[in-house]
Task: inverse folding
């Protein structure tokens, strides 16, 4: 089978120059969080005999992180299965990662990408996907391992340093992370992932004023980016306003930037839930803003793909007072835990107890919630998400203990 090479001088089996150009355009969009990723579907559809193109198309659908993505990926997975034996070893490993992902074997996907990028560190797109899985698995060491490989062939390439910066921050190497993030923006001013990494550093160092100014300075470059990074960087901008006790400004960002562009997108749902959760912990009144989010969450009742997502969906249902729906959702999480491999699975060991704590918190059983959350904090990284995203559980625990202290003081 014929092959052409991509921008990194790596072969693409079953491709011609037009297909290679289309793949290169996709790689640029993926690394830069561009808004035109869907163009890859047309390329893959035109070249069903090219397993790598179809594997990346399947990956994009799976990265939607909802059941719809799994359904939409199936055509591309079928093409992978029909052609995988005719491809190169590097491409086979990427196809293997995507097939494991589609089978909900996220560790297997990460392992295949780990092997691929050790042997072919020039494949920056595979490194990016490796970091995606490491992040969702709460594996900070792997996140950095993938990031460091980007240095081997991409020391001065756009978007590589942003990947390294975020990995360093998640490993608490904050000064290095900020330096890498700033270097990334020198290479590519629109590196929105680098903007995000530097914001994480400023959040971790409790520099909310610096963080708000930094993101305001960068925001003009996000207009032509994809929904995820725009939503998420504005989420960080709102988070800094919360740290500055500017709740109304945070609500303004929520209304303009965090909800309504693509309500069906799980990541938009997660960001919106997370922000309203934090606002209410600070005593803010959010009016009817929960209602449209809960309507979307009802469409996620049977997904149970990522524990980080499930805990946010559960919070929205329980916060809305939907006791039956929240109870059913938590029961399904328990079924997911029971069907997983091993007693130490993240669903049984962390996600379900955290879900029970959320329900306890929202139904007035604050001591029960506090006891559970306190015991879970050391292992909470396993649900995925970043330090900043998971901090809402710390804030929830604090709300429980503050209320307990207040009750105790009134009883004295």
Result:
């Amino acid at each position: 089978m014929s092959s052409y090479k991509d921008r990194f001088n790596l072969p693409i089996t079953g491709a011609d120059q037009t297909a290679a150009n289309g793949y290169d355009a996709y790689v640029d969009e993926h690394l830069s969080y561009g808004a035109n990723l869907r163009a890859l579907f047309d390329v893959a559809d035109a070249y069903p005999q090219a397993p790598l193109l179809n594997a990346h198309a399947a990956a994009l659908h799976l990265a939607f992180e909802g059941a719809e993505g799994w359904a939409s990926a199936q055509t591309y997975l079928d093409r992978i299965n029909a052609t995988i034996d005719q491809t190169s070893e590097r491409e086979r490993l990427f196809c293997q990662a995507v097939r494991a992902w589609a089978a909900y074997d996220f560790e297997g996907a990460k392992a295949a990408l780990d092997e691929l990028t050790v042997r072919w560190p020039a494949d920056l797109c595979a490194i990016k996907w490796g970091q995606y899985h490491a992040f969702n698995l709460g594996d900070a060491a792997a996140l950095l391992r993938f990031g460091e490989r980007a240095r081997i062939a991409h020391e001065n390439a756009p978007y590589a340093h942003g990947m390294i910066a975020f990995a360093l921050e998640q490993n608490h190497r904050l000064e290095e992370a900020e330096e890498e993030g700033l270097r990334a923006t020198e290479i590519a001013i629109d590196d929105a992932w680098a903007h995000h990494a530097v914001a994480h550093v400023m959040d971790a160092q409790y520099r909310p004023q610096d963080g708000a100014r930094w993101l305001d300075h960068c925001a003009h470059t996000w207009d032509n980016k994809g929904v995820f990074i725009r939503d998420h960087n504005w989420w960080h901008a709102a988070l800094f306003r919360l740290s500055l006790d500017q709740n109304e400004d945070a609500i303004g960002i929520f209304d303009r930037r965090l909800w309504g562009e693509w309500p069906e997108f799980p990541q938009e749902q997660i960001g919106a839930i997370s922000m309203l959760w934090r606002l209410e912990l600070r005593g803010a009144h959010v009016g009817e803003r929960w209602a449209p989010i809960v309507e979307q969450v009802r469409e996620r009742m049977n997904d149970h793909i990522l524990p980080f997502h499930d805990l946010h969906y559960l919070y929205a249902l329980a916060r809305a007072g939907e006791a039956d729906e929240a109870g059913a959702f938590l029961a399904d999480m328990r079924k997911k835990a029971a069907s997983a491999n091993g007693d130490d699975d993240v669903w049984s060991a962390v996600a379900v107890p955290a879900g029970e704590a959320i329900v306890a918190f929202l139904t007035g059983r604050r001591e029960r919630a506090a006891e559970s959350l306190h015991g879970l904090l050391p292992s909470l990284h396993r649900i995925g998400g970043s330090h900043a995203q998971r901090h809402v559980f710390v804030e929830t625990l604090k709300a429980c203990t503050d209320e307990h202290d207040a009750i105790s003081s009134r009883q004295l």
Summary: The two ends are 81 Å apart (CA to CA). Residues 406-412 have pLDDT under 50 and may be disordered. Residues 387-411 form the longest helix (25 residues).
